[in-house]
Amino acid sequence: MSKKVENIGNTFTSAENKKKQQQKMRRRVVRKRITLFGGILLILIIILTVMLVTQKQSNIDDAAERQEKEQQYQKQQDEELALKEQLNNLNDKSYIEKVARDDYYLSNDGEVIFKLPGEKSEEKSKSSKEDK
To answer: Transmembrane residues, as ranges (predicted)?
Structure first.
């Protein structure tokens, strides 16, 4: 069943063989070009994906830092408000007199201040409860 096929050595068959060889070479060149451009495209996709992931992580880190800064800013604003209130109180003469009487036991002329034994401990316990 197996027969050997022999080529006829005429110009037509040799021209057809040349055409087939050229088509094979073109296919090889096209495959090489497609492989090359496909590889370049794949590398670009990988690079862009890596950049996207790093940018996303950077955005997450920046958002967390921004939130932390906003909390610090809010604390500073609250502290500023408290300091302004304290400044207003310190400009009020009646408040200064009250602090001087309570904390430093100062009195007006002719007044006598009596210190009771249980008063100081009660004030300390009240102030420590308020601080918490």
So the answer is: 34-53
What is the Cα–Cα distance from 60 to 54, expressed in whole angstroms? 10
48 vs 12, residue with greater confidence: 48
Question: Domain ranges in the chain?
Answer: 10-102
pLDDT given at position 81 = 96
| C-alpha–C-alpha distance, residues 122 and 132, integer Å | 16
CA distances from 29 to 78, 82, 91, 115, 122 (A): 73, 79, 91, 106, 96
pTM (predicted TM-score): 0.50
